[in-house]
């Protein structure tokens, strides 16, 4: 790709990418799984592919800020397509691959997307089924597979078309990149939402430049870092890590398979990774439930010491010599083995998308694995606040990014103003007006600021419910406590709006409960049968009684039930970022919940 000899400050993501290629061309940019091994791709190699794809889009008549969709799992082609869209001056409309045909059509029609990059036949089938509802969609570009329909071309077809266009217009991509303004639309992300139709969040080039630039300036990530990237790139959390990569110059090992995360960390040996809290909870549960007998005793002793040492250091207190000696011993016997599970090179994890249980964070910290919790919304490009490795407070989401202002409203709502905040909702002026007042983003989250400026999220305003006695209950806080009391549960969901007491629905973690069942003489009973087992119910009841002992009287769980299946994205109970859709769960289990109060 043609390059300028004197880099200037980038005005858009396309220019930022071109400058990164110029600076780091021969360095590794990406690493992908291939035939049982991992293959490296340099910045220069990536740029060559991006340029031909961008030129291909220009040859198809794409104009500034036209929307182009991507419906795919996390993979290298997703990133290359996104960069090509940006370099062609267009804007990416992100579509979760798990989105059903009806919602996929709604997103693409509402955004007026003209082209869609589709991963495979599964995604193509949705588009074909709803073709009559997509009058703006002129072309589908397939990552995998092919089609006889003229409406569909392959990724290689688009690149070949782009190469021919480049031969006639060699500076076309550079010229377009130089014309993109900071305020131009870069990305349209439709909030997956837990209720109602998704809203298109309009994110400008300026927002991504700001987030990437702040991360680079604070020195949080370096060009010698390696991230394991599995997060859905249709989600703002995944996208902000890409803008950070282009700004900082580190490499990303890419594999969107959630069930391969732990295995991949052991092989790739990343220095950092972003994840939702559920991933850390599952890793914690898996490690905890593997400890038996004397090993479990040693494990418990090690973490008691590790947590105490970490707490004293965090609070600036004197650490007694005997604690230091024990901690060093346990580091060799216990903690180093845990770090090795994650490859042994992790500098820190980044947790976002939902609140992280403080007990989980303390457990990882004791093992020498720091989890930096951050905070942002789709409406703020997935960014805004983060803890720093040398300045963090467990239980908080950290300090605001440089240049981000934060305030707490009289109602306790977190509001902030920043260059990362959206331009507004697509075609929804009233909703934009409600969310953005005088430039301040109303988050819908309750929170508080301490004297040092650390922000703590105390709950989701809409997730608070009132019992019939007038008392308020905050489900997320109760559910977070249960996560550490019962490593065999996958989800614990609290309900009770307008009722006279709180109740809960529980799902089991299949791997953990299977191990527990074998240890307690239940053999290899299938998952569904275990959900009905008296022994399992007794174990869960003990955990719930422990939970109740730590709650206010009106918060205690009076009745509960175990579901015969776990929650899934495909089942509609989880968003792609693994947040529980409470309304869906409540509706699907209405008879059970109503039965608690009959």
What would your notes on this structure say?
This is Acyl-CoA synthetase. It is built from 21 helices and 27 strands. The model is unreliable at 2-6 (pLDDT under 50). The protein is α/β, with parallel strands linked by helices. It is 41% helix and 21% strand. Helix 1 (13-24) crosses helix 9 (236-248), helix 2 packs across helix 3 (76-87) and helix 12 packs across helix 14 (358-366).
CATH topology category name of the largest domain: Rossmann fold
Outline, from the CA principal axes?
globular
Structural class: alpha/beta
Helix content: 40-55%
Please outline the major beta sheet.
Answer: 8 strands, mixed
- Report how far the terminal alpha carbons are from each other: 69 Å
The proportion of strand residues reads 15-25%
Number of domains: 3
Q: How many extended strands?
A: 27
Q: Which spans have pLDDT < 50 for at least 5 consecutive residues?
A: 2-6
Radius of gyration: 25 Å
What is the mean predicted local confidence, pLDDT? 92
Helix count, DSSP H or I runs of 4 or more residues: 21
Strand order of the largest sheet: 7-6-5-3-4-8-9-19
Protein name: Acyl-CoA synthetase
Family: Belongs to the ATP-dependent AMP-binding enzyme family.
Organism: Mycobacterium cookii
GO molecular function: long-chain fatty acid-CoA ligase activity
């Amino acid at each position: 790709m043609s390059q300028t000899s004197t880099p200037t400050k980038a005005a858009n993501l396309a220019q930022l990418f071109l400058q990164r290629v110029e600076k780091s061309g021969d360095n590794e940019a990406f690493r992908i799984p291939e035939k049982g091994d991992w293959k490296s791709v340099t910045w220069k190699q990536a740029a060559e592919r991006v340029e031909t794809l961008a030129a291909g889009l220009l040859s198809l008549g794409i104009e500034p800020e036209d929307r182009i969709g991507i419906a795919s799992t996390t993979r290298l082609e997703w990133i290359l397509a996104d960069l090509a869209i940006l370099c062609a001056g267009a804007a990416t409309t992100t579509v979760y691959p798990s989105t059903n045909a009806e919602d996929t059509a709604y997103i693409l029609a509402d955004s007026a997307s003209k082209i869609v990059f589709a991963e495979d036949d599964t995604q193509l089938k949705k588009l074909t089924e709803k073709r009559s509802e997509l009058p703006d969609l002129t072309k589908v570009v397939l990552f995998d597979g092919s089609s006889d329909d003229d409406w569909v071309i392959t990724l290689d077809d688009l690149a070949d078309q782009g190469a021919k266009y480049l031969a006639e217009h060699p500076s076309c991509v550079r010229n377009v990149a130089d014309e993109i303004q900071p305020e131009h639309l870069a990305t349209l992300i439709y909030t997956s939402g837990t209720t109602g139709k998704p809203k298109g969040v309009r994110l400008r080039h300026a927002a991504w430049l700001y987030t990437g630039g702040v991360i680079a300036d604070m020195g949080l990530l370096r060009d010698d870092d390696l991230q394991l990237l599995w997060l859905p790139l249709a989600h703002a959390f995944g996208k902000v890590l890409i803008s950070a990569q282009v700004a900082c110059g580190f490499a990303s090992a890419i594999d969107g398979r959630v069930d391969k995360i732990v295995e991949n960390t052991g092989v790739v040996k990343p220095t950092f990774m972003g994840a939702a809290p559920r991933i850390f909870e599952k890793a914690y549960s898996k490690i905890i439930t593997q400890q038996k007998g004397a090993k479990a005793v040693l494990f418990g002793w090690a973490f008691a010491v590790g947590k105490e040492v970490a707490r004293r250091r965090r609070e600036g207190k004197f650490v007694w010599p005997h604690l230091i000696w024990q901690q060093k011993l346990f580091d060799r016997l216990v903690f180093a083995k845990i770090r090795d599970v994650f490859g042994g090179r992790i500098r820190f994890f980044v947790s976002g998308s939902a609140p992280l249980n403080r007990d989980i964070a303390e457990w990882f910290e004791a093992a020498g694995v720091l989890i930096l919790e951050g905070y942002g919304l789709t409406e703020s490009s997935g960014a805004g606040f983060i803890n720093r490795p040398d300045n963090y407070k467990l239980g908080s989401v950290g300090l605001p990014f440089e240049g981000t202002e934060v305030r707490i409203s009289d109602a306790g709502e977190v509001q902030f103003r920043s260059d990362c905040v959206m331009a507004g909702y697509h075609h929804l002026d009233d909703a934009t007006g409600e969310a953005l007042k005088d430039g301040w983003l109303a988050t819908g989250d309750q929170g508080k600021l301490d004297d040092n400026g650390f922000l703590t999220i105390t709950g989701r305003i809409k997730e608070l419910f009132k019992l019939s006695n007038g008392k308020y209950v905050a489900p997320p806080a109760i559910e977070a406590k249960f996560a550490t009391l019962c490593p065999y549960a996958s989800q614990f969901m609290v309900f009770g709006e307008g009722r006279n007491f709180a109740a809960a629905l529980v799902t089991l973690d299949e791997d953990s409960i299977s191990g527990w069942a074998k240890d307690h003489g239940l053999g290899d009973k299938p998952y569904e049968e275990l959900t009905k087992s008296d022994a399992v119910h007794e174990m869960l009841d003990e955990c719930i009684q422990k939970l109740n002992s730590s709650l206010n009287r009106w918060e205690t769980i009076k009745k509960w039930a175990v579901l015969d299946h776990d929650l899934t994205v495909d089942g509609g109970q989880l968003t792609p970022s693994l947040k529980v859709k409470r309304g869906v769960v409540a509706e699907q289990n209405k008879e059970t919940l109503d039965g608690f109060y009959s």
